[in-house]
Amino acid sequence: MIDQTHVQALYDCDVIDNRGEKIGSVKRVWLEDGTGKPMWAEVHTGLFGMKESFVPIQQGQVAGGAITVPVTKEQVKEAPSLHTSGDHMSDQEQEALYRHYGMRIPQAKTGEHDRLAGRGRGTGDAAEVTLSEEKLDVGTRSVETGRVRLVKHTVTEQRNVTVPVTHEEVRVVREPAEGSTGKAFADEQAEITLHREEPVVQKRTEAVERVRLEKDAVTEQKDIKGEVRKERVEVERDDEPRGRR
Fold it and tell me: Which parts of the chain are coiled coil (predicted)?
């Protein structure tokens, strides 16, 4: 059974018929004068939700963000269209709804009217609406931007190195002869062997340097732009010319 405690939870609820089919969504709730008991829900139905239909919710059940009512979707579609005056429903309008849904018209209804409790209207001296706005949730994800490799090649280059080398030269040394050591007037020769150094080139391989790749994380600031929606509220008065706020 739905009572006053459910009123706020009914706004924008999905309305489900007794066979589990969705009828539409609640846009206004009509309360009983004096008791404040929820009686009817004004539901947007039809193609693109352009039609407004009245659904009895006295015996409805609220659960899981939806209200299940004991009528069929077809009954709601065929319900009489009402042109309510202000926030009140006339006796004739109420009776038309009761008759359409095959409900008994309470005797207490004679001379009384249901009043509208909808978004933007309160049940006492206060009225309120709930404003919503979208927020940007910004995060990061890792993407591959490229790959870096170390590739080793062999190249040949010329090197000039100066090496000291030594060679022997001959010189003639003359000194007085003391005594006779050779044959006089006979052919004679003497010789020595000369030497010199020549450069010799040999190659050896040795490690001279190690090269490796390392990654560093660099943080920078980036500006992100996105469109968000927000709701604003305006105050309209029925006793002032339209266009004034």
Answer: none
Cα separation, 29 vs 36, whole angstroms: 11
d(CA 123, CA 116): 10
pLDDT at 106: 74
- From first CA to last CA, the distance across the chain in angstroms is 40
Q: Which residues of 48-83 are buried (b: 16+ CB within 10 A; e: fewer)?
A: eeeebbbbbbeebebeeeebbbebebebbeebeebe
User: Does residue 59 register a pLDDT over 80?
Assistant: yes
Longest dimension (CA), the chain: 177
Query: By the 8 A CB rule, do 117 and 31 touch?
Result: yes
Half-sphere exposure of 6 (CA within 13 A, CB side): 25
* Integer Rg of the chain from CA: 54
Q: What is the pTM of this model?
A: 0.45
Residue 60: which residues within 8 A CB-CB, separation 6 or more?
2, 41, 67, 68, 69, 70
Dihedral sign for Cα atoms in the order 172, 176, 181, 184:
positive
